[in-house]
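Our collaborator T.R. sent over the components below with a one-line note: 'Predict the complex.' Nothing else. No constraints on interfaces, no templates requested, no preferences about which chain binds where. So this is a plain run: every listed entity goes in together, and whatever single assembly comes back becomes the starting point for the next discussion.
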Amino acid sequence: MAASAGPEIERLIALLAKLPGLGPRSARRSALALLKRRDQLLVPLAQAMTAAAEQVKTCSICGSLDSTDPCSVCSDRTRDGALLCVVEEVGGLWALERGGSYRGRYHVLGGLLSALDGRGPESLRVGELVARAGSGEVREVILALPATVDGQTTAHYLAERLAQTGAAVTSLARGVPVGGELDWLDDGTIAQALRARRPA
Amino acid sequence: MAASAGPEIERLIALLAKLPGLGPRSARRSALALLKRRDQLLVPLAQAMTAAAEQVKTCSICGSLDSTDPCSVCSDRTRDGALLCVVEEVGGLWALERGGSYRGRYHVLGGLLSALDGRGPESLRVGELVARAGSGEVREVILALPATVDGQTTAHYLAERLAQTGAAVTSLARGVPVGGELDWLDDGTIAQALRARRPA
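Returned assembly:
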């Protein structure tokens, strides 16, 4: 680590290095930046972390993170309760909310099935999903899972489990992303976009 | 930002995004990682930051950061007080200490001269450096400044200012870094390594 810095700095660097995207070198840079801007950044960030640790709750309905339980999406009565969008993690929910076009509700799965990591359905919020989908209110379950092997395995499994609920099960469309140059796209995406072609 | 998360999460993301190397996207990932590992990471990091904000001081002699003032290097009597190494920032001091081969003392300049940013000698710890170098104890001042235009301008200026003190002024050697393939080195480094060639 920093070798000649005090134990407080060493500990700060060691913990910062555990953040995703930061390694030992960038953790040292971050620690220095924090210590240089003590009143503008270090103290406010410490307070924001303490506040988040105390205030942020997991929504008992959808599994999202928010200051309130139920979360702001679940308690928003203008939302369409007939649409239920399944995401892997809260990050996916945030991404869809930034898009701004979805007005239904969510269900955070808490991960994906993974044979490699030995993660089965019992470690995900599958039972809660089936119960919500079968409550009668939900008309369509949209699977917004990543286009990876684990994501598609999970989608396949969920589609089977949800068949009994009577809700329609759909997936996000695959195709060319907005602004996507064909030259830069992988072959799998081009093949899928071609198969799913539509009248212009 | 995250749109549908509470104010605590929004604030946490906004502050994390100010760390060097983190942008809005990686700040969101970091916030989620922190909230998922609340007791193992979020709370300890908040405490480490609070402790650092309270305990870490700027050394009144060399300008380094440490839990004590004077810092552990300045108060280490086994260090060679005849050698004084000038670094731009604390990060440079840490890098030299990790190297482990330097046993002299340091002087943190607090920046570099920059015509572009309008930073003159009065905003750096130049006066303190000249005073320390002229105290009689210092035999050699080693300029460990970056090999950039600003770094070399600063080194040139310091060499002139330090001429009156009687201490010898040296710079870090320029050349091929350890493990450096000639193929991958820039032309300037190769030219300097060639000019400064030594008997094998």
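Summary for T.R.: Strands of chain A lie at 57-58, 65-66, 80-87, 104-108, 140-144, 168-171.
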